[in-house]
Amino acid sequence: MTVEEPAQQRVPAPESTPDEILVAGEWRRGNGAPIETVDPATGRTLTTLAGAAATDVDEAARHAARAAADPVWRELPAHRRARLLHRIADAVDAEGERLAALQTADTGKALTETRALVASAAATFRYTAAAVETAEEALTPARGDYLTMSRYEPIGVVGAINPWNSPVASDAQKLAPALAAGNAVLLKPAEWTPLGSLALGRLITRALTELRLPTGLLSVLPGPGRTVGDAIVHHPRVGKVTFTGGTRTGRAIAHAAAEKLMPVSLELGGKSPTVVLPDADLEQALAGVLFGIFSSTGQSCIAGSRLFVARERYPEFLGALVDRAQKLRIGPGGDPGTQVAPLVHHKHRDSVACYVDLARAEGARVLCGGSAPDGDAYRDGAYYLPTVLDGLPNSSRTCQEEIFGPVLVALPFDDEDDLIRQANDSVYGLACGIWTRDHRAAWRIARRIDAGTVWINTYKQFSVSTPFGGMKDSGLGREKGRDGIRAYQRQKSLYWGVSDAPLPWAN
Ligand code: NAD
C-alpha cells in the first residue's frame, strides 16, 4: 500500500450529538440515509442516526491508510499497543452498565446477557493485549551462511463487518486483534443495532487521543450492507475483510475478496445439532438443551437448533422439554427475571413466524409455541414463544435452514451411525452439543461430527483463549486464541547473510 500524505490527528468534537457516526476520528452526521433504531421490547424509536454513505467509507479508508502508515502507530512496539488495549478494556469495564443497558435497548437482549457480553468484550481486549505482548516471531533453522527469520507485519486497513445479534462482543473480537496487529479498522455494525458499536467507538477514540495515537485508526460506519458494507469490501485501500453474518452475504464477500486477492475471514451461519445419548443425565441435558436454543431468543449462530435424541429416550425427553419450554419467563430484556426476551426487530419476528408456518406446511407437529404470546404486555414488542417442533425428516427445509429464532426441531436416532449420518447431513458445521455419561462415546462422536466447536455436557460456554470458527458453509478461518492476531498480519521472511564469502557467481 503506498501512502504519500502524512497522517493528521483529527480531534473529535468535545460534544457530539446522538445522531452522529465516527468517520476517521471525527464525529459527524453521515452522508447516507437516516437509520432509525428501535427498542424491540416496545417498538419505540431510540435514535435516528444520519447513517454512512459510500463517500464516508472512502474518506474513512483514506484516513485509515494514512493512520496505519504513520510511524507513530506502525513502529509502536507490541507492548505499547498492548497498553492501548488495556486502556480500552478499563474503559469498557468502567462504562459496563451503560453499554449493557444500551445494548439491551438496541437489541432487545436480556440484561443478564448483555452484561456478560460487555464483560467478554473487556476480557477480549485484555487477553489480546497479553497475547500481542508475548507473541514471538521465529528465527528459523539456518541452512546456510545466513540467518533466516519469519516476521509478522500489519496488513494496513481492515474492514470489520458485523451482524446485529451481539454487537459489542463481536466488535471486540475483531477490533482487539486487528488493532493489536497494528492495523486501522473500518467497523460496520448492522443497520438495526448500531448504538453499542458507536458507544465502543467513543471509548476507543478517547483512548487513542489520550495516548496521542492517530484517531483515524478507527471509523464506525453504520449503514446498509449493500452500499456501506459493499463499499468497504471493494475499497482499494482495504486489505482484509473480517465478516460475521449470514452465509449468503459471506459468500458474496468471498467472491469480491477473490477479485481483489484479499484475505477474508468469515464467521457464518449454523444449524447445530445437540445430541442426547441414551445414558444422558436428564436434568443436565434438559437445562443444556433449553439454554442452547432459547437463550438469546435463539438468535445465536451457535444455537443448538436441531435436537437429536436416542429413540428409546425420545418420548420421555420431549415431554419434559416441552413442559419446561412452556414455563420459560418471557419479557423485556431489562426485567431481571426475563429468560426469553423479544427478538431483535419486528421484521425478524415475522421472518421466524414464516419459518414456523413453513414447518406446519411441511407436516411438522408444533409441540409448544408456534405464535407470539398473548397479552397486553407483549402487544407492542417483537416477542415469539419458545417453539418445539417434530415429525419432520432431517431433509426438510425446517431442519436444514437457519431460522435464527426460538425454534427447536427434534428428531430421534437409532444408533451412532444413524446419528452421525443425520447430524452431518447439513451444509453447516459450526457447533455441536453432546449429552452423555459415556466418555468413550462422547470422544468418538466429537471426532466424527463436522463442527468447529463441540461441547460435551455443556453448551454455549466461551473462552477467548480457544479458537472459534466454522466448517463447511459456517465459515472460513478462526477467531480468538493466541493466533487470532495472526489473521490480521502478513508474514514476511528475512534472509540475512552472515558470511564474508562471495556468492557462487562471484567466481
Ligand atoms: P447479514 O449477513 O444479513 O448481515 C451481516 C452484516 O453484513 C450486516 O452488517 C450487513 O449490513 C452486512 N452486509 C449485508 N450485505 C452486505 C454486502 N453485500 N456486502 C457487505 N456487507 C453486507 O446477517 P444478519 O442477518 O445481520 O446476522 C445473522 C447471521 O449472522 C446469521 O446467519 C448468523 O448465524 C450469523 N452469525 C454468525 C456468527 C459466527 O460467529 N459464526 C456469529 C453471529 C451471527
Describe the structure in brief.
It is built from 15 helices and 22 strands. The chain is of the alpha/beta class and about 500 residues long.
Query: What's the CATH architecture name of the largest domain?
Result: 3-Layer(aba) Sandwich
Q: What's the CATH H-level superfamily name of the largest domain?
A: Aldehyde Dehydrogenase, Chain A, domain 1
- Strand fraction equals 15-25%
Strand order of the largest sheet: 14-15-16-13-12-18-19
In the CATH hierarchy, what is the class of the largest domain? Alpha Beta
The tally of beta strands, per DSSP, is 22
Please tell me the total number of domains: 2
Sketch the major β-sheet. 7 strands, mixed
Query: Which distinct ligands sit in these coordinates?
Result: nicotinamide-adenine-dinucleotide
Q: Count of helical segments?
A: 15
- The portion of residues assigned to helices is 25-40%
How far apart are the first and last residues' alpha carbons, in Å?
A: 39 Å
Radius of gyration: 24 Å
Protein name: Aldehyde dehydrogenase
Active site: 267
Keywords: Oxidoreductase
Pfam families: Aldedh
Q: Which keywords apply here?
A:
six-stranded mixed β-sheet, Aldehyde Dehydrogenase, Chain A, domain 1, 507 residues, globular, alpha/beta, Aldehyde Dehydrogenase, Chain A, domain 2, binds nicotinamide-adenine-dinucleotide, 38% helix, seven-stranded mixed β-sheet, disordered N terminus, single chain
Question: How would the blueprint of this fold be written?
Answer:
Layout: E1 21-23, E2 26-28, E3 34-39, E4 44-50, H1 54-69, H2 71-74, H3 78-94, H4 96-107, H5 111-134, E5 138-140, E6 146-154, E7 157-161, H6 167-180, E8 184-188, H7 195-210, E9 218-220, H8 225-234, E10 238-244, H9 247-260, E11 264-267, E12 273-276, H10 282-294, E13 306-310, H11 314-327, H12 346-362, E14 365-368, E15 387-390, H13 397-400, E16 407-413, H14 416-424, E17 428-429, E18 431-435, H15 439-448, E19 453-456, E20 471-472, E21 475-476, E22 489-497
Parallel strand pairs: 7-8, 7-10, 8-9, 10-11, 12-13, 12-18, 13-16, 15-16, 18-19
Antiparallel strand pairs: 1-2, 3-4, 5-6, 6-22, 11-21, 14-15, 17-20
Helix pairs in contact: 1-8, 3-5, 3-7, 4-5, 4-7, 5-6, 10-11
The structure holds nicotinamide-adenine-dinucleotide.
Nicotinamide-adenine-dinucleotide is lined by residues 161-165, 188, 190-191, 225-226, 229-230, 233, 244-246, 249, 252-253, 267-270, 301, 402, 404, 430, 470, 475.
